[in-house]
Amino acid sequence: MATRVIVSILLLLPATATSGLAPAAQTGSPRRVIHITAERFEFWPTEIRLTEGEEVEIRVKSDDTAHGFRIVGGGVNLTVPKRGQGEAVTVFKPEKSGRYTFECSRMCGAGHNFMRGVLIVDAPEEQKARSITTDHTESTENSMGFSVVSVCSVVRGC
Amino acid sequence: MTFEWPKRAGRSSALLTLAFAILVSTSSVAAQQPAGVEPGFPSTGPISGYMDFHFNKADGEAGTLDFHRFVLLFTHSFSPRVRFVSELELEHAFVEGLEEAGELELEQAYLDFLLSRRFNLRAGMLLVPMGIINERHEPPVFNGVERPFVDTVIIPTTWFEAGAGVHGDLGRGFRYRAYALAPLNALEFTAEKGIRGGRQKGSQANVRNVAFAGRLEYRSSRHLTIGASAWGGDSSFSVPRLDTSVRIGEVDARYRTDRLELRAQAAQVGIDDAARLNDAMARLTGVSPNIARSLRGFYGEAAYRIWNAGAPRDLVGFVRYENFDTQYRMPVGFVPLKEFDREAWVFGITYFPDPDIAVKADYVRLQNQSGLVPTRQIVNVGLGWWF
Ligand SMILES: [Cu+2]
User: Fold this and answer.
1) What is the ipTM of this complex?
2) Is B312 exposed, middle or buried (0-12, 13-18, 19+ CB in 10 A)?
3) Share of chain B above pLDDT 90, in %
4) CA-CA distance, B130 to B216, in Å (whole number)?
5) Structural element, H or E, at residue A19
6) CA angle, A61 as apex, A60 and A63 as ends, to 5°?
7) Which of B82, B240, B337, B376 could serve as a FRET partner for B174 with CA atoms 20 to 30 Å apart?
8) Is the same domain home to A100 and A143?
């Protein structure tokens, strides 16, 4: 059943990608791949910097049990397979600068609520100006201007 | 490892202040979350839990089969930012009124108000943020059938207490927890198990004095996490004019690569006025309990993933050395009971037929400094799972 769902999602991917946004290959810029590791009870890294309009591929794998990966308020909610059983993948393109909280969305133990992180999206000019990472104040966690190009859970690597 | 907590000043109002802060934050959370913003909320469950089934055999004794822990977790999310988490545990499979058999414990039952990355509020029955194991105690998470001795008699896991506090992620790898909690009850301390009996477990807990607990963790890379915890509170509320202030300090580190995992932890407990505590307890019970003024323990563990092809081809071998003494420093006029100055070597394996199932076996050699009490050799086999 799970395999069938995954296969259907994979088959739908090209259509989804071309309907909303141009895939990276057509824009000529290589898509950055961001690897996130989930384990009880933290993600690593917990802080990820992106640039507004940058399309990235987020790949989340677990070092222990199954976790979840949700971008709060954003319609991304993946199941991260258990250790050694592949990774969850999504393509994410933030249209607006700001801070996007991500968190574990599948109960994984006593410290589950501690599993949170942040995607910090800089405006392009900010990105250029920033030579050293500076401390940012909390701002627009909920104003979600972004596109999720595709979402899939990959079993044993795809 | 010595440190001082502020004395009683302001403690009585700490819980009230936190309760007020939670009330205020609840209304602001409600204002930030218009109904229907996030699909899937409110939501309940699903139920999850873990179980721990053990066989223990000490030399010269009959083996025992024990369904040590049966734990169910119930959760409810009122919204993405307001969540309830609970953990109900049945220990040793059986509870009978007034009998010392099993225990039914509410180990966690709290509301989390997730306000921002840096600052969140939590209130209810909380796990004391101390050491590696207390907040990370699911069977597949640690090696060994039984939890480390240091995490049993020096840090009394599972240590949970009623209270309220704050937690958050400060960025750059730093995370913290800071809670105000009901204190320990010093009248339940013992020479053998230290402060363990003093846990009030949120059961009509006396809060004439409030205890404070805090933990700071730093993760420098994917591989290394270091942590430090502290606890402090006046713990002699049952006996007037006794000032048994208890302080606990702890440091720990975990290093993990693909195959190797190293863990180290050290903890020290300080008990003020231990001589008068002993006298007071002797007057109440007729026997001096010989409580120390300082308890100490540390351990180091090295684990290597011998078979690393992913479950069911997943096998870990480990060795752990522990040293723990609940009679480390005695008050003037008291002599330490050397049988409680102990060290242990633990050798074992953990096999994962599934990442959430741990089949464990180990051999424990438990020695003490007394010439009279013999060394114990124990074989343990365990089956633990999470779902
Ligand atoms: Cu998780």
Assistant:
1) 0.84
2) middle
3) 70
4) 10
5) helix A2-20
6) 145
7) B82
8) no
Q: Cα of A38 to ligand 1 centre, how many Å? A: 7
- How many Cβ pairs within 8 Å bridge chains A and B? 87
Candidates B87, B120, B135: best to mutate against A (most CBs of A within 10 A) is B135
The verdict on a CB contact (< 8 Å) between B117 and A116 is yes
Domain that holds residue A157: 125-158
Furthest C-alpha separation in chain A: 49
CA A27 centroid distance within chain = 20
Span A15-28, pLDDT tens digits = 333 222 233 334 55
* Residues A138 and A118 reside in one and the same domain: no
Pair (A102, A136) in one structural domain: no
Across the interface, whether the CB atoms of A82 and B169 are under 8 A apart is answered no
* Least confident range of A5-19, A85-99, B219-233: A5-19
| Tokens describing residue B285 | 């019970």
Give yes or no for a contact between A3 and A29, defined as CB atoms under 8 angstroms apart.
no
Ion ligand 1 neighbours, Cβ < 5 Å? A 67, 104, 108, 115
The backbone torsions φ and ψ at residue B342, rounded to the nearest 5 degrees and listed phi first, read -120, 155
Do residues A91 and A155 share a domain?
no
Q: pLDDT tens across B29-60, in order?
A: 433 434 445 677 898 888 999 999 999 999 99
Whether A115 and A142 share a structural domain: no
Q: Is the Cβ of B312 closer than 8 Å to some Cβ of chain A? A: no
pTM of the model: 0.83
For residue B331, give the DSSP letter. Answer: P
Given an 8 Å threshold on Cβ–Cβ distance, is B117 in contact with A138?
Answer: yes
